[in-house]
Amino acid sequence: MFGIFGKKGSDSADGGVRVIAPCSGRIVDITEVPDAVFSGKMMGDGIAIWQEGAEVCAPVDGELTLIAETKHAFGITTPEGVQLLVHVGLETVELGGQGFDVLVKAGQKVKAGDPVLRVDMDLMHDKGIEMIVPVVVLGDDYQELSKENLGSTAERRSTVVASIKK
After folding, report:
1. Of 21, 84, 134, 146, which residue has the fewest beta carbons closer than 10 angstroms?
2. What does CATH list as the number for 2-165?
3. In the annotation, is 125 catalytic?
4. Candidates 18, 87, 156, 157; catalytic one
């Protein structure tokens, strides 16, 4: 999954990339995601949010370099070359796209906070799916990842959840 992104966030004052909450909910460290691929940082480091509400937004300015065929995940690459994966829910790939509406197209440029997906939360609840949203920094081509506001409640589109120095 690492090599599929093109070279194309939201700048912080120090020249790094600020990552905002793509959805509302409680912010946790990636190590707390109840899935070994994420908690073991096999894809990279990051944070996760226990999702409240149906909308999932772009966490940074950039280009949508991947939208999963099953609509449950998207990749975004910042102008600085930072690559993020936003994965909505656990075991959602098995739904084959059911319960997800994609609001954008791969290759589209977006601003942090632009809506990307809408999720049928009632369907997810009915199917017993854990609605946690890992936001993963892919690879290790960065100097520093600062996780912010862990343990607090994120407000979609406004709460800063991480800063990345390239």
Report:
1. 146
2. 2.70.70.10
3. no
4. 87
